[in-house]
Amino acid sequence: MTQPTAAGPSNTPIPALNNDNNNSTYNTASGGPSQPLALQPGTFQSLIPMVDDIFSTLYQQSISGEKVSTALAAEQVAPKAKQLAQALETMKSAAVDLPGGHLSTEDIRTLTDMLEEQGQQRREVLRAFEERSMPLTDQLGGQDEIAVDGEMSSAVLPSPAGR
């Protein structure tokens, strides 16, 4: 399923950043989130201890001298597996709820490439301004006395050409 798109500054389509399943607020007038989302402490945790606990239980059952019934094995492993599944689901929903969390890695690559391209275009514009001959700014830059109480001294300003 493709995400809806909007046209960027160069009419390049970009994936929509608001998601109906996302409980964040998005202010389209300013183009950004109106409230940042805060992750709850402990949202993301290591799964290794849970997986290790499940494997340890299964290993103990496999090397045990007595035959372990399927019901007993399930009784020991099932709660730990449910805890692991709940932790995974909590982390998945927290990741999706982050701004842009619903985007695929391909969408993120597309956005990154587009932003890098726009950044390069802006650097080129700034470079062009830097290389331009601007006599007024050169003249103002050479003066010692530029501002007095936030206003330019009339001695520093060039005289108007037609007056």
From TrEMBL:
Stretches with biased composition (Polar residues): 1-13, 24-33
Annotated segments matching region Disordered: 1-40, 135-163
Organism (species): Kwoniella heveanensis BCC8398
Source domain of life: Eukaryota
Protein name as catalogued: Mediator of RNA polymerase II transcription subunit 9
